[in-house]
Specification:
about 325 residues; alpha+beta; globular
Length: about 325
């Protein structure tokens, strides 16, 4: 490689990141281990001036030990003075802003597409960030999903619940387990739950048959360039909980992939790569695919810490390989 790319992270405020487990930090560690310069900017710092997309950014220095682990969880980085960067062919840009997926996020994807036009390589591809809703995208693979309904009308929702008896209702734009309800057909709060989630029959939601294997964990499978990491993170719900989200109090357990997990990955992998989705987190409960997380998947640090993998480095290597092929 004659030139090396600079790695630019578009992300939440760096001081807000939990140093012990944050996945974006794991990606930074991977880039630094490969000798690549890393920069930090926020979505609100990106701007278009006379047809050119640019940003105010800071170069990052990580406080690492010889084994590329953080030397301190309190003092783990330092920033250079802010400088203006114009995005171009020497850049690999990682969009790592956490949801919510809202109009601000969509506006950022428009700027990301213009960055592509200027020659930058973007992970994940901006049009796919917009198109691949993390819940709806699973419906492209119905053979992998539990029985599913997407609807806004209470009549359809109630008929589905009556058929399957024990169900999960969730908004299409939720994150971290927010506004997820386990509902049975005789639930006294059924009407108000449906009214609230659908905004009185105006907004589509997803309804799925309840999967009892959630008690063993909601499995997060990391795919890098369409290939699964060798281990997954199972998020086991807290007592009296049905949500397998770490944000909802679940416990993370690192496990090997099952044969069925690998089958799901083999089916999805080629489609993900075709869409420029280079870093993806699948959610699998039992044998069923429930979400395809493309905006800002997490979980690599827990796997790395327990199994000695370096998934952040694996990702950056894969992105650099794609970047080099374009040259």
């Amino acid at each position: 490689m004659n030139k090396t790319p600079r790695i630019i992270f578009i992300m939440d405020p760096i001081e807000s990141l939990p140093a012990k487990k944050d996945t974006t930090i794991g990606m930074m560690m991977g880039a630094v281990s490969l000798g690549l310069p890393i920069y930090y900017t926020k979505p609100e710092a990106i701007y278009l001036l006379e047809g050119v997309v640019q940003t105010t950014a800071n170069a990052i220095t990580l406080n690492l030990k010889a084994d590329n682990k953080l030397a301190s969880l309190d003092d783990w980085y330092s920033l250079s003075n802010a400088e203006n960067l114009i995005f171009g062919p020497d850049d690999i840009v990682l969009q790592r802003k956490d949801p919510p997926f809202n109009m601000h996020y969509i506006h950022t994807t428009y700027l990301l597409e213009l960055m592509e036009k200027q020659g930058a390589f973007i992970c994940n591809r901006p049009d796919s960030l917009r198109d691949c809703n993390e819940k709806m995208f699973t419906t492209w693979f119905p053979e992998l999903c539990p029985p599913t309904l997407v609807a806004s009308q209470s009549s359809h929702i109630k008929a589905f619940i009556e058929k399957h008896h024990d169900t999960i209702l969730k908004p299409l734009d939720g994150m971290g387990g927010s506004s997820i309800f386990r509902v049975a057909e005789k639930d006294p709060n059924l009407n108000v739950i449906i009214e609230t989630l659908t905004e009185h029959n105006q907004t589509s939601i997803m309804v799925q048959r309840y999967i009892p294997e959630i008690s063993k964990g909601d499995k997060r499978i990391i795919l890098i360039d369409g290939k699964p990491a060798p281990y997954l993170l199972a998020r086991v719900p807290a007592a009296n909980e049905t949500r397998g989200n770490l944000a909802a109090g679940a416990t993370g357990l690192v496990q090997e992939l099952s044969d069925n997990d690998r089958r799901i990955c083999e089916i999805l992998g080629p489609e993900l790569v075709k869409r420029g989705l280079y870093f993806v987190g699948l959610d699998v409960i039992g044998n069923y695919l429930t979400e395809i997380n493309v905006t800002s998947p997490t979980g690599i640090r827990q796997i790395d810490d327990e199994k000695g993998t370096f998934l952040g480095q694996d990702l950056i290597k894969a992105l650099v390989a794609h970047w080099e092929k374009r040259a």
